[in-house]
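Dear support,

We are seeing what looks like truncated structure output for some complexes. This example has two components. We would appreciate it if you could run it in full and send us the complete token output so we can diff it against ours.
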Amino acid sequence: MGDAHDAALGARAGRSDRAVALSGIRITFPSRDAEPFTAVEDVDLSVADGEFVAIVGPTGCGKSTLLNATAGLLTPSAGTVAIFGEPLSGLNRRAGYLFQAEALFPWKTALENVAIGLEVAGTASAQARQRASDWLTRVGLGAFTGRYPHQLSGGQRKRVGLAQVLIRDPKILLMDEPFGPLDAQTRQIMGNMLLDLWNAERKAVMFVTHDLEEAIALADRVVIMGAGPAARIIGEWRVALPRPRDISEIRLEPAFHALHKEIWSALRDEVMKGYRQAEQAA
Amino acid sequence: MTRLRLLLLQVLVAVVLIGIWHFGSTVKLPAGILSAKSIYLLDPFFFSTPLAVFERTWRDFYTGVIWYHLGITLLETALAFAIGALGGVLVGFWFARQQMLAAVFDPYVKMANALPRVVLAPIFALWLGLGIWSKVALGVTLVFFIVFFNVYQGVKEVSPTVLANARMLGMSERQLMRHVYWPSALTWMFSSLHTAVGFALVGAVVGEYLGSAAGLGYRIHQAEGVFDVTGVFSGMLVLAIFVIIIDAVVTAIEKRLTVWRPTSAGHS
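Here is the complete output from our reference environment:
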């Protein structure tokens, strides 16, 4: 019934396939002692339902800011955010957000952390815990349900975070450098796990990273942002690599290398620009 | 360092201090060393002797006189802590969520907190009489501020990421209170629990000392009034044992309630 309702709304807006549509987004932060800081400017970006989009850019280009605007955690200074054709007001109830920093509740066990998303929505505690336990098993943490976050490794905490977000079955998944602090091997394992989960039930994904290889390996489409301030989108590439993919193997494909080289030549200039700006500021 | 060795060293400190006290107060120095007369290094009239103090303490417990006074002091401490902590938690929460209110009351809170509480004791005695409630009130004024400041801080310093995550998971304001602000404030409160309980006891004993008819503070004051130094030291000894036991209980409660914290010993 919910789906039919969505489809009807989408049909009225004529964009049922677009899970996220950002248009003309500018985000400016007031600053006490200097000019207001514009993080991103004039950004148009849309993500189709079930599409995996990776956003890549140099540090400080406002990638996270875009995610926050899509999540409804901040309101853009200009432009509109539309979710399945409807303008977003307040929090985005259809999105799940996997944060870059530690976001688990340290006073809850892994099981409680995952179950909480269902419990606050009114699911009975026993049932929520049963499903949380299933989800923890799915992310390979079936034996760690009673552990507190500080008793888990960084990678395990990210898995709990993933289960915590996915258990609510969001239609849109926002991920802000989720595997940033992990070591290279763990990142590959986490990446493959993410792709498996995403293959099972395709959600629209906005995946922010500064790692171009990771972006190409995971995504259907790679969006490159320029250096901040007032960063813009400077290009996007469709990744035509076959699925299902294995992250560690796909890096050896010639097509991967060709695409990587092509995107990197565009990105490099922006990275250098960012460096120069940082040097001038210092 | 092993536990056993630590314990031995801790006991050694007590033995040495009591040894010096015993020696100074029981062995007369021969004439001609420090003064013309033969004297005690620590005159027993002013310092009593360890044996006399232990004997008096033992007798107080043995005959049962002290239990009543201990009970009164314990009751006052518990009431002061419960009322002060409850008030501190409620007001701390309220202020942290209502920035305007906190800003308006800020100078008054600081003023009230800076006031030496001893000067309030006569006023409480006047208002509430010489029974337990004037002591409880004194303890409350001490406990309240410690808990208040910690809860206020705890609610204000919730990690913004954890908060954003809770919002994205669909929590309402009430659920945020229950699942995020409350546990966070509790951890800060527990880190001040030892201090708060200690201050509740200080409030009770000081209140008793300044005017009452029962309690450990009253016992010490009575002994002082008749130059009974043994009685004063015995009262202090009972107080010290009392404090150690309360502290152990608080530590046990703290350990149970903060199992999720990486190192509960890290905070002081």
